[in-house]
Automatic annotation (TrEMBL):
<feature type="domain" description="Nitroreductase">
    <location>
        <begin position="17"/>
        <end position="77"/>
    </location>
</feature>
<dbReference type="InterPro" id="IPR029479">
    <property type="entry name" value="Nitroreductase"/>
</dbReference>
<dbReference type="GO" id="GO:0016491">
    <property type="term" value="F:oxidoreductase activity"/>
</dbReference>
<dbReference type="InterPro" id="IPR000415">
    <property type="entry name" value="Nitroreductase-like"/>
</dbReference>
<protein>
    <submittedName>
        <fullName>Malonic semialdehyde reductase</fullName>
    </submittedName>
</protein>
<dbReference type="Pfam" id="PF00881">
    <property type="entry name" value="Nitroreductase"/>
</dbReference>
<keyword id="KW-0560">Oxidoreductase</keyword>
<comment type="similarity">
    <text>Belongs to the nitroreductase family.</text>
</comment>
Length: 195
């Protein structure tokens, strides 16, 4: 099914179409070296002025996971509670090199998350990022300082069976397609799609 949906038009590495966001997780533990390997990939993301504003807080034990589940929306908790690891994606908003505010903190942190997700796919580990959580509750529960922004919560683990999900989620448990390049690529100005 995945191969039928995800066909690139142009030649790219298969890792980009292999990566998607399942919701069904096995209870199998992730070896420390594999888990740290995901964050090693994030480490090498591009970063403006090499500031590296990204930070991650992870939950691997039940007490830490319960803290995460306290601020995740119920519609996500129903499936993400089975993931072996939950991770908060965070960025440092201020930076002396920029005279105060770092205008690229979110952009650079997004690049770090993308590197993590692709490395996970390479290792046959699944990731599913969520925006469905209460940011202020998350900041309080994880003791995130005011000069840091929390962007997403990511469920990390090994893929489980589609049938373990509710019927509604089973219908969504397929890799999504993407818009064609011509729909978002412009040349010269924002209104010229003739590339």
């Amino acid at each position: 099914m995945k191969d039928a949906i995800r066909k690139p038009v142009y030649d790219i590495d298969p890792i980009y179409t292999k990566r998607w966001s399942p919701r069904s997780f096995l209870s199998r533990a992730i070896p420390d070296d594999d888990l740290k390997g995901l964050f090693e990939a994030a480490r090498w993301a591009p970063s403006s002025a090499n500031v590296q504003p990204w930070r991650f807080v992870i939950a691997r034990n039940e007490a830490d996971k319960e803290a995460f589940l306290s601020f995740i929306h119920d519609s996500n908790t129903i499936w993400c509670k089975h993931a072996r690891v939950l991770a908060a994606v965070i960025s440092k908003m201020d930076e002396q090199k920029f005279g105060g505010h770092n205008p690229t903190h979110a952009f650079d942190t997004g690049a770090a998350w993308a590197c993590l997700a692709l490395e996970a796919a390479r290792r046959e580990i699944i990731t599913h990022a969520m925006a469905g959580f209460h940011k202020q509750k998350a900041k309080a529960a994880l003791r995130i300082p005011d000069n840091f922004e929390i962007h997403a919560i990511v469920a990390i683990g090994y893929q489980g069976e589609k049938e373990w999900l509710s019927e509604g989620l089973q219908q969504r448990e397929v890799p999504s397609n993407r818009n064609e390049v011509d729909s978002f690529l412009f040349e010269g100005d924002f209104h010229n799609t003739n590339f």
